[in-house]
Design goal:
Elements lengths: L1 H42 L9 H25 L6 H35 L2
């Protein structure tokens, strides 16, 4: 009986391995589509040259604010399970992210205006 269990387990293992290997063919059209889309996007990267360090910082800060907003909303929706102290801390952290993003945007605009005025 122990040999039967080992044989059944071995057959199950072999079957699972074959299933995993066969599933790669299901993913092949997805990868081919991604390659095609990346090829199209790489020909049209005109916007990429317009990004500088300042605008990337602003985009990153905006993404962090968006993620923080979603997290804070999630905590507010489950407010019965979260203490008020934790909600206050989360709000303070979120507001810190918002103020930081606004300051980065302001500094980036000042730098851009200075570059335009100096003719660069």
């Amino acid at each position: 009986m122990a040999d039967d269990n080992r044989t059944a387990a071995h057959r199950l293992e072999i079957g699972l391995e074959r299933l995993v290997l066969a599933s790669r063919w299901l993913q092949a059209p997805l990868y081919i589509g991604l390659i095609v889309v990346l090829g199209v996007v790489v020909d049209k990267l005109s916007w990429f040259g317009k990004l500088d360090a300042g605008s990337l910082k602003v985009k990153l800060a905006s993404s962090i604010v968006a993620i923080s907003s979603i997290h804070l909303l999630q905590r507010f929706l489950g407010a019965t399970t979260v203490s008020n102290d934790k909600l206050y801390v989360l709000m303070a952290v979120h507001l810190t992210f918002v103020v930081s993003a606004l300051l980065l945007t302001y500094i980036d605009r000042l730098a851009t205006a200075k570059q335009i005025d100096s003719g660069h």
